[in-house]
Amino acid sequence: MVTVKNTNFYTDYAIKSFFKNTALNNDDGFFLIDNDGCETDKFSNFGKIKIIKNNQPLNFAENVNQIIDIAIKNKKNLIFLTNDLVFTKDWVNPIIQNNSSISIPSNNQIFQYQSVCKNLKLKVTMDFKDFNENYELLNDIAHQHKKKFNPNQKFQTLLMPFSCFKIPYDILNQVGYLDKSYGTGGGEDVDYRIRCAIKGHDVNFLIDSYVLHFHGRSTWGIETKKQTEERNKKYTDIFLKKWGKEMTQIFIVRKDFINILEKKNVKHLFEKGKFGDLIREIYKK
What is the pTM of this model? Predict the structure, then answer.
């Protein structure tokens, strides 16, 4: 997990909910990256936490790569977390059990619910006051969510942000590190998804795992509008140069691309949500 000064407030709740709802083995490690001189002494009560203090602020990919390096050296799977998350009971079990692909928990960006008493409403983008520490209601929502579906289901969408994700060791070994050239944040997760797909590995949401993601607090909450525009332009330009106009239009711009799907004869894959296959088809043509 990474914490930054502007959103260190969220880190406290993310860590508390993580350790309350996540069973760890003796040989599991939890690393908290202090990106820019945050107050981290309060986390010393959690014996599992090892603090990594950056000498200077790093971008998202650079921080992930620090932990990828540790995982590869120790032959471990990697679960990476942003700090704007709240974890539900046993959220990690489906993630642990899946080693065939990169796994992302389901969340309120995809499934929006409200509690029966209507005191908790999960929206795509939320502030902490929207949650108001309603942990039990959140757990009830996660429980009811899982009851709606058959077990062990997974699915893919066009947009699959790496806010909370597991990369199995075998995939880490084959695909390696995130591309840090994209800058502060943006594009590197799509880039990694494409590189995984080329090597035959998919990125999947897991229905049986559900977390609350406040959405963008680790990035948007610390940027001005101008900084966001500049960041978006930078990573889009880099992605375009690396992967071409078609991949950029589909996965970065994410509009006006139906003609590309038809031209490449992959519209059926898009409609079925088979984005790993879609990437592989476009890449080889």
Answer: 0.93
